[in-house]
Design a protein that fits this description.
This protein has a single domain (2-92), classed as TT1725-like (Alpha-Beta Plaits, 2-Layer Sandwich). The protein is of the alpha+beta class and 93 residues long. It is built from 2 helices and 4 strands; from the N terminus they run βαββαβ. The longest helix has 19 residues, at 18-36. The N and C termini lie close together (9 Å). It has helices at 18-36, 63-80; strands at 2-11, 39-44, 51-60, 85-92. It is elongated and about 40 Å long.
């Protein structure tokens, strides 16, 4: 069993309140969960209205499958949310 994790450090420049930020984060989390069947959680910067830290985790029987899902998730976030400034950190266990 192989576990892959991604942490997205997101800067949301157009967010002017926690409510606006949470709308963006909620949308991102729901889309990732439904499209890729991964676990998603906001893990940091929860009270900062222009910053979010989102963790995504997937499990598969082999490393190739984990890497494929992780790359698809990264590509999806970068293409579907072009207004976000994102740093990506990923690990495979």
């Amino acid at each position: 069993m192989i576990i892959g994790s991604i942490v997205f450090e997101c800067y949301i420049p157009y967010s002017n309140s926690l409510k606006e930020k949470r709308m963006v984060v909620r949308s991102l989390k729901e889309k990732l969960k439904s499209k890729f069947n991964v676990s998603v959680s906001e893990v940091g910067n929860q009270e900062m209205w222009q910053s979010a830290q989102i963790a995504v985790v997937t499990v598969a029987p082999d490393q190739k499958q984990v890497e494929k899902v992780m790359q698809n998730v990264i590509n999806f976030v970068e293409n579907s949310f072009p207004d976000l400034y994102i740093n990506v950190y990923k690990e495979i266990f």
